[in-house]
Amino acid sequence: MSEHPPASLADVTAALEAAYPPGLAQDWDAVGLVCGDPADPVRRVLFAVDAVAETVDEALATDAQLLVTHHPLLLRGVHGVGADTPKGALLHRLIRGGVGLFTAHTNADSADPGVSDALAEALGLRVGAPLQPQPDQPLDKIVAFVPTGPALRSVHEALSAAGAGEIGDYSHCSFATAGTGQFLPHAGAHPAIGEVGKLERVAETRLEMVLPRHRRRAVVEALRAAHPYEEPAFDVFELAALPSARGLGRVGELPEPEPLSAFTERVAAALPRTAWGVRAAGDPDRPVRRVAVCGGAGDSALSAAIAAGVDAYVTADLRHHPASEHLLAGSLPGRPTPALVDVAHWASEWPWCAQAAAVVEKALGGSVETRVSRLRTDPWTLGA
């Protein structure tokens, strides 16, 4: 470690946000840097599912400068973080100890790879497509007709500044074709080119640029402001969503089929032991090969698992009534449904910690030492 200068907190968070883009997070979520100075040096990072007293103790005891967790400490809005409150006390301990806190939650769930990839790999599955694909950012395309000449450059710059023409690491992307525009100004018009009552033909350029759909209003306003015409001609098209490797859950396959009973034992052996344990619903002798997984609470994706035609679905926090109704539906002739394997929420997400640690190691090499917490922070501590 001494051979490499320490990375900054900003370096570490940049690596994590590149792997788990904040834009993938649900709008109700709270992800990113919770506390810490981005300019501070970071030599050691601890990864855990939860920010609780035990993992804060571990971060301080191991001289970590950053604690990275999957679950947000401040998921619900707060009006203060006084040290006399449970969560505030943790934050004060972290800050006094010089430890930052960073969270990747639903953005890590939907990333490629993400939480469910880590779970699938832990189970020995050959990982495939998302269970619930998340389309890439919705795009529009604006097509504007601009008189050829200096006005074209002005319009192009205005649209680019408003957010159009960005593709990956490129900006000002466009396509232009030459043509002829035609218009007849009537009484009351104030044409920039031509005269009232006289049919006009003008050399124009058809300018095409893509834009994020949420920038539509800004781009159209920029076009109207920069275009020389009183009534600019333009079209806005909504582009079809493209398939994406991002999304919730994953579908994968075992190397060979095995009975549900053996597969349940496989799951139990692959994940940390918890009081919750591993529970399965279905015929113990049913062959299992194609499997859907969803780290964390996944009964909302149960219908997607059925539609995927898998043999088993592994997730956490399955509720009694959805599971019971699922088995009842599967008892009908011609309507096969997957077996269910229910694990502890914490255990289903713990494999992600090693994945996130590998992200930082790959990005920052020997500058940062990583450690995955093995403390069981599952809230259920006793089982009979």
Automatic annotation (TrEMBL):
Binding site for a divalent metal cation: H70, H71, D109, H345, E349
Pfam families: DUF34_NIF3 (PF01784)
Cellular component aspect of the GO annotation: cytoplasm
UniProt key word Cytoplasm: no
Family matches, as InterPro entries: DUF34/NIF3 (IPR002678), DUF34/NIF3_bac (IPR017221), DUF34/NIF3_sf (IPR036069), N-reg_PII/ATP_PRibTrfase_C (IPR015867)
Keywords: Metal-binding
Gene Ontology MF: a single term: metal ion binding
Stored NCBIfam families: YbgI_SA1388 (TIGR00486)
Quaternary data: Homohexamer.
Family under the similarity heading: Belongs to the GTP cyclohydrolase I type 2/NIF3 family.
Listed name of the protein: GTP cyclohydrolase 1 type 2 homolog
Originating organism: Pseudonocardia halophobica
